[in-house]
Amino acid sequence: MAILADENTRVIVQGITGREGSFHTKLMLEYGTKIVAGVTPGKGGMEVHGVPVYDTVEEALEEHPDANASIVFVPARFAPDAVYEAIDAGLKLVVVITEHIPVHETMRFVNYARQRGTVIIGPNCPGIISPGKTKIGIMPGRVFTPGPVGIVSRSGTLTYEIAYALTRSGIGQSTVVGIGGDPIVGLSFTEAMELFERDPETKVLVLIGEIGGDMEERAARMIEEGRFTKPVVAFIAGRTAPPGKRMGHAGAIIMMGTGRYEDKVRALEKAGARVARSLSEIPRLVKEALEKA
Questions:
Q1: 150-186 pLDDT, tens digit each
Q2: Phi and psi dihedrals of 168, rounded to 5?
Q3: What share of the chain is helix, strand, coil (3-state, %, to 5)?
Q4: Residue 104: CB partners within 8 Å, gap ≥ 6?
Q5: Residue 259 annotated as part of some ligand binding site
Q6: Annotation-wise, does 20 bind a ligand?
Q7: Locate the CoA-binding domain: which residues (predicted)?
Q8: Domain extents for the chain?
Q9: Is 238 annotated as a binding residue?
């Protein structure tokens, strides 16, 4: 099994005729992702890497009613409209790669998606991959391999590094979700953990957090309250970040004494998670957790 996306997921690429959309459509097709259509207003009738292009998501679904997910490469100015279009068309999974979408716009479409039963991953995220089954995102597919470890992460680059380290240690992954580093994201750590808890293929979870916000503390409460029962190995980025200075992601900032590295580590360890102080520790900790799982 996998969470959210597998070999049966059929994908529409919104913004497929743009540079990024076209480039990553090719890579996703090479990975084996079932991309059935692309959408760019005014470009209907074209083909991109053999994928037919339509003017709207609704038109794409008329020809490809089996499509059930989309990935958005639309520029930030127009991306919210693209997301609403996918939600209104009934797609249940929308991966928003676009960065620099204003926070208030994200809040609106995330709230709208929740009301309509659509899962949003992102924005400003690398996407989701279920190794050997499908990739709906921009991550390098070669660093992942099928296996029993779920990964949920706020950082794209750290996700790739940690997945590659696990793969080199002979440890594969069930599903890897990059939820994005913006202050507001569609899928939270705890929501992803609920899905991993129900996935029989996932034996251990790697949680990659960072300073800022309180998603890691909420994940810790979920573990502490027994609502997530599988072993967790965590890593928190930003250990040396000074308060008030944003570190990379828009959401990675310590403000008014909240979102500190020490607080997140303390909460996770108190809940029973093992927190790695360096990336190189993670394969060993995961291996030990798998032996006990």
A1: 999 998 899 999 999 999 999 999 999 999 988 899 9
A2: -65, -25
A3: 35, 25, 40
A4: none
A5: no
A6: yes
A7: 4-101
A8: 11-121, 140-291
A9: no
CA dihedral 179, 181, 186, 190 (to 10 degrees): 60
Query: What type of residue sits at position 76?
Result: A
**Residue 128 C-beta-side C-alpha neighbours within 13 Å:** 32
Kindly give the pairing relationship between strand 146-153 and strand 119-121.
Answer: unpaired
Which of 253, 56, 290, 274 is CA-nearest to residue 169?
290
Output the 3-class SS for 253-288: CCECCECCHHHHHHHHHHHCCEEECCHHHHHHHHHH
Q: Assign residue 42 a region: left if phi > 0, alpha if psi is -120 to 50, beta otherwise?
A: left
Q: Is 99 annotated as a binding residue?
A: yes
Radius of gyration of the chain (CA): 19
Question: Which region among 2-6, 215-219, 255-259 has the lowest average model confidence (pLDDT)?
Answer: 255-259
Asked if residue 43 has pLDDT above 80, the reply is yes
Tokens of 93: 């999974």
Q: Are the C-beta atoms of residues 101 and 185 closer than 8 Å to each other?
A: no
Helix (H) or strand (E) holding 159: helix 156-168
pLDDT 10s digits, 88-114: 999 999 999 999 999 999 999 999 999
- Name the one residue in this structure whose structure tokens are 């394969």: 283
CA end-to-end span of the chain, whole Å?
A: 18
Q: In the CATH scheme, what is the code of domain 140-291? A: 3.40.50.261
Looking at the annotation, which residues are catalytic? Answer: 249
Q: Which of 194, 197, 110, 192 is nearest to 159 (CA)?
A: 192
